[in-house]
TrEMBL record:
Domain of life according to the entry: Bacteria
The organism of origin for this protein: Pseudogulbenkiania ferrooxidans EGD-HP2
Span of domain Pirin C-terminal: 179-274
Family recorded in the similarity comment: Belongs to the pirin family.
Pfam family, any one: Pirin_C
Protein name per its UniProtKB record: Pirin
InterPro entries in UniProt: Pirin, Pirin_C_dom, Pirin_N_dom, RmlC-like_jellyroll, RmlC_Cupin_sf
Transmembrane segments: none
Gene3D superfamilies assigned: Jelly Rolls
Length: 286
């Protein structure tokens, strides 16, 4: 049976800067607990002003995972968190019953003309924790396992694999890793992941004889081993894990197992009942 079971091409979106959206699509609503996947940039921003800033907006029922290849972003949220994220680090924001946050381009990144590029993903929360208290955690790059294996530079962001374990804590089994693969290198897939996919942020892979090119997400058959081979220099994100017990519905920035909860979140945002980010006054209409 083929290792590569499905290939999903990205769709370009403009959210103030270019993103390539992979999840959700008609072909796949999720991979494990991952219900949303954007590849941001690379984007350059004007030295002055706020073009490209993501203004305050709400979430429920999910956790956002931010990982940058280059540049930096400044995270602020309604808990009072102010946290700069740079390449190699992980920001994990748990929305639970409701949170509001903004993501802005720092002044030094604008003035230096540094490209901002990275991944923004959403994780579904377990059924019993969909309405948990909001939370935020930051994991610096130096706290995450990073090593070279057969010429491949690996960075384990969430979960366990290749005899390593990430300190990032999540209440569902999740696997998320970055791999920089020079042309000709091989990477054995991790074992014990319920559902698994590979996203080629740049480059091209050979997956058991099938090609997976840049900006494509490949769904992989698990339980049979296998390896990825870099046909040229490549940057690859591996993601997967165990899905939540119930299906998830998405509406704007909201995720829930109950459609009526999504309707309530919409009404709450329109009525401005969500907590707001301290010191910020902008408001994005639904």
């Amino acid at each position: 049976m083929p290792l590569l079971t499905q290939t999903i091409a990205s769709q370009t979106r403009d959210i103030g800067f270019p993103v390539r959206r992979l999840l959700p699509t008609r072909q796949a609503r999720r991979v494990g607990p991952f219900v949303f996947l954007d590849h941001m940039g690379p984007a350059h921003f004007s030295a002055e002003g706020s073009a490209g800033d993501v203004r305050p907006h709400p979430h429920i029922g999910l956790a956002t995972v931010t990982y940058l290849f280059s540049g930096a972003m400044m995270h602020r949220d309604s808990l009072g968190t102010v946290q700069r994220i740079e390449s190699g680090a992980v920001n994990l924001m748990t929305a639970g019953s409701g949170i509001t946050h903004s993501e802005r381009v720092p002044a030094d990144i604008r003035q230096q003309g540094t490209a901002v590029e990275g991944m923004q993903l959403w994780l579904a929360l377990p059924d019993e924790l969909e309405e948990c208290e909001p939370a935020f955690a930051h994991y610096p790059a130096e706290d995450l396992p990073r090593w070279k294996q057969d010429g491949v530079e690996l960075n384990l962001l969430i979960g366990a694999g290749w005899s390593q374990r990430s300190p990032v804590a999540y209440p569902l089994p999740v696997f998320y890793a970055s791999a920089v693969m020079p042309a000709g290198t091989r990477l054995t897939l991790p074992e014990g992941v319920d559902e698994l996919a590979a996203y080629v942020a740049a480059g091209e892979l050979d997956v058991d004889g099938a090609a997976l090119s840049d900006n494509q997400l490949g769904l992989l058959r698990t339980g049979q081993g296998g390896e990825l081979i870099a046909r040229r220099d490549s940057r690859v994100m591996l993601l997967g894990g165990t899905p939540p017990a119930s299906p998830r519905y998405l509406d704007w920035n909201f995720v829930s197992s109950r459609r009526e909860r999504l309707a309530q979140a919409r009404a709450d945002w329109i009525a401005q009942r969500f907590p707001m980010v301290p010191g910020e006054t902008e408001f994005i209409p639904l």
